[in-house]
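User: For my dataset I need records formatted as: sequence, then structure tokens, nothing else. Please produce one.
Assistant:
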Amino acid sequence: MPTSVTGKPNSHLSPGMIPRMGNRRQASGFTLIEILVVIVIIGTIVTIALLSMSLVSDDRELVQERTRLVSLFETIQDEAAMQGREFGIEFMVSAYRFVEFDPFTRTWAEVPGEDLFRQRTLPEGMEFELYVDEKRVVLRDEPRQFDDPKKTSMLSGNANYAPHVFVFASGESTVFELRMRRDVNEQELVIRSDIFGDIEIVEDEG
């Protein structure tokens, strides 16, 4: 028992008031290194979660663009069959547009009065890769120039412009495979069409 300067025991000091050397580390709490380790772990978890959310968002956007393209393709097939018109699709690296063939001038032009079939641009980071009859097509960044109807006639046959994919009034179309990809997350979706214009959506080629 502790004693006073007079040598007498300090009976007024309770055992709980006497500090113990073994409990000093517990009373000091976490060290700076331990706190830094916890911060690093939390930061890593948050980063992984944010990246996962970003990839899911990108996948949905890619699927949305594919769905839009397939819907437009099927719609213009119906237009061709019901009205006896012939259409085409021109693809660029990150865009596409629908065109119509004029049998009187023998030239292609944008579909008149149809905002639905206007040129559309893919979101940033998305690109097309096109195969026609199993051969890869080199796509341009910008659309090609249409032929001048005044310089093109039924007899001259000097037309230069032609779309990549034809959609005929008979219901037939160009055989093609279209790959839509986003390199940042290595995602890719595939669309295929046979000679009858039937669309196949490839979910997983693995």
